[in-house]
């Protein structure tokens, strides 16, 4: 049976890539998920794993070839090469040859982490060396800058070696551990041998063939092999390693010559003893970077309005029990705001558009991002085609995405592709704030606390439940008139929900 190796999804707005490096040649044995080649796009470098175990067949796209998404890269012949990975492992790691007769070894690899995500940090190991594991049992958890990823056991056996300890940064497709599908009795003895054999190779770097793309990058950056710490298999230097080393080399002199930030003043000893220093999680670092990038890139402006929530609250109170009995989900305010935003986006489509270079991309659909607070930070799951959904479907989707977000179970795909975002700071008591755009989107609506305030209605002062609304928008694409119109349409739809039914 022949398995095709095709170009994976490259990311939003990326349609082609260049084949940079082939790590295998025709006739080589390959294991499932082993890295076959490296593709370069104008944004990121993408590694292509093997979809199955077998023997490398024909390479259709040679190095330097430009290929589109889903284009055929190569073929793999499965079947006769089942024992090939074990033989290759013997050749590379002679120290394990004594234990090879007791059972075959299975590599535990870093799974695909998602578009534009090339590395992760090992946060927790659920098993230790010597433990018996069942197929698909959770071995460890990885933390990326966006989501947490659980790594299941690819087969039943014994965990013989952990190659990436907790706190280690690993690359997509890298090796995490080794399982023995046999008795595993000699595993403890084999593990130290493997470490001893790997240590000289990693230290010297002479017996490890670095990626060709990495060699080229080192030459262009003027870096020697000793200046780059390899993160690939057996210390192999990858292109991303060179980029990190080059960035570190340029930042160090700049920091020494002219520090961008004043050094932290030394605190009194009694204060230091009461301080706690905690390293930022990858998610928190990414949140900080993306928020600052948004401010630096977009011409961000915020316009405000207020909405009388009397009619929405009355409608909700009238039908909430019947709604729950029929649909099995509670009727909240988010479905009203989502429908109101969809209604307004139809009239002001530029708020639902994005800038791509010198083009404006108008979206004839609404993928609504709903910001959700979690114990590890803010995430924005996306509800797709929300413009085609009713109140019940919206409430179910929001509840399901929110629960998955709090449990850290969201996938990369569930947080990509949004065209507009709603952020509800009111649940935390916020009275007014200016939300920050979620690039490349051009608009985000901020909801706030509902508060009783005296209002002048028909010449009389009455108490009404009022909420401040804030629309932050990219002034490069959305004019002030469009932003104000959008917010007024949201206000009108909420103050008279019947307008949503009449499409007014």
TrEMBL record:
Residues 87-99 have a biased composition (Basic and acidic residues). It catalyses: N(6)-[(R)-dihydrolipoyl]-L-lysyl-[protein] + succinyl-CoA = N(6)-[(R)-S(8)-succinyldihydrolipoyl]-L-lysyl-[protein] + CoA. Residues 2-77, 105-180 form the Lipoyl-binding domain. Residues 83-107, 198-235, 254-275 are annotated as: Disordered. Residues 209-246 form the Peripheral subunit-binding (PSBD) domain. It comes from the Bacteria. Keywords: Acyltransferase, Lipoyl, Transferase, Tricarboxylic acid cycle. Gene3D superfamilies: 2.40.50.100, Chloramphenicol acetyltransferase-like domain, E3-binding domain. Residues 254-269 have a biased composition (Low complexity). NCBIfam families: PRK05704.1, sucB. Belongs to the 2-oxoacid dehydrogenase family. This is Dihydrolipoyllysine-residue succinyltransferase component of 2-oxoglutarate dehydrogenase complex. It comes from Roseovarius mucosus.
